[in-house]
Amino acid sequence: MATEFDAVVLGAGFAGLYQLKRLHDLGFHATIIEKAPGVGGTWYWNRYPGVMSDTESFLYRYSWDKEDLHTYPWSHRYVQGHEVLEYLDHVANKYQLKKNIHFNTALKSAKWMPGVQKWSLETSKGTFVSRYFVGAVGILSIPVYPDIPGRETFQGRSVHSCQWPQDLDCSDKRVGIIGSGSTGVQIITALAPKVKSLTCFQRNPQYTVPSGNRPVTAEERQSINDEYSQIYAEMKDSALGFGFTESKVMFSSKTPEEREEIFEYLWEHGNGMRFMFEGFADITFNREANEATCDFIRKKISEIVKDPVKAHKLKPTQLYARRPLCDNGYYEQFNRENVDIVHLQETPITKITPNGVQTKDGKSYELDILIYATGFDAAEGAYNQIEITGSQGETLRQRWDRLGPTSYLGVSVPGFPNFLMAFGPQCPFANAPPAIEIHVDLITALIKDAESSRLSGNSEVVIEALDSAEAAWVSKCSQIATSSLFSQTPSWLFGQNVPGKRVGTRFYFGGIKGFLADVESVVQNNYEGFKPIKENMVDREASETGTSKL
Ligand code: NA7
Questions:
Q1: Which residue out of 55, 207, 497 has the highest number of ligand 1 atoms within 8 Å of its CB and is therefore the one to mutate?
Q2: Which range among 19-23, 305-309, 543-547 shows the weakest confidence by mean pLDDT?
Q3: DSSP structural state of residue 211
Q4: What is the mean pLDDT of residues 435-446?
């Protein structure tokens, strides 16, 4: 027999936990379905050595629990993976959310039932029926493995970064790692001092800068606490929401000496996002500024890495236009004798053997452990794993195969009534916790108003984006993306990291401030772009919508 809920949320990460809390606050009978045995979402799965956030700790958390903002402990400029998990576990306990989470439960399929206007959700633990269905699966959860012959023949331990076995001890082992994105850089930096040998199989080197991680003093914490309202006001007025003032300085307005000074300051102070956005306003769209940034980082690589052959392999040649990375001493690791780098563009991997990896130059690398830091089928990937059938009988995957991973505001897809995504495709490219809060607040407002409309007799009401609104949003996202050098550099942000995946932006690059303005306008205009939810809503006070937090 099916278990009935008012709302079912999929996923117990940052988005899912906050969404469950908001639904409980509305008095809804709501639950979370979660595949893992614990909360944390992305942070639950990504427990590899060196895993760390690169957002300032004071903004990598929820804004709505003022007590936690002021008192929950964190010691460094950035929180490590286990600290994020502990924090989310603390929130789930504090708000007694766990009793309403179905852990170890996988959603297999979801089907809209037009007769009763509800979703039927088939899970590994039986059927759930719910009027509202909120996806909160995150953007990075489906691992991508490289298609290399012989992968299954390897006799040592092989592991993807997001399925890291907690018993895996790499000490004194011969370790190989494929991938040098954000994850690879973190793993390499953490493992290099501990392992017998570390061979890094790198296809495209990426630019990474020092993170500047360091302890935060009690005085600094106090001053952050004192300024929290200002910090959040500035965050909402920014594009990225990373807790620093984004530059308005054009590269051309500075002399070569001044540019060098700015780059040096950023390098010393640390953080990839700051490096890209705090010194100059136009690194991501002015080719000259971008190339100067590339030159500066390549010069740093030459200075740090003593072996010129290794240094040469580590120097990126692409534009500096992927999600910017930072590290805790990545390039320095290549001065260790036990760390080597294989440049796959010069010597591609030909096969994986029972003993290790072979490359085209005939070399064999004998390994005990092979790590895949090869990334994710991002954005729509997690939704595509589940058969979600909407009101027209088409699955979400079929629709996205046809049109690309489209949505309206990153939350709603035409043909999928009462299905809402917290941080779905075409959500803002920004610091995740604050961006997620905007989404959850919008979803909560939509559900609250739809439910009150339904209870007042409007029995047919559903929350569903209009085709025209979705098309306009997709076009807006792609226009903004096209103006950036990001769109000229292949990465998971545009889908090129998965062979055969449709290329196009998965993000709204208009920033937090722009997104908030769009959402506020949608709410104020009677949920413009959605099917009518409530008659007579135009005059209503914003505070009645539940979106006053926006
Ligand atoms: P990324 O950024 O997608 O990086 C994946 C890495 O794996 C990257 O270096 C890829 O090289 C490499 N890769 C992928 N497939 C292959 C094959 N077939 N052969 C060799 N190398 C390969 O994933 P991450 O997990 O590092 O980071 C994802 C996000 O998580 C990050 O941006 C943060 O927001 C958090 P390529 O560059 O494609 O040549």
A1: 497
A2: 543-547
A3: -
A4: 98
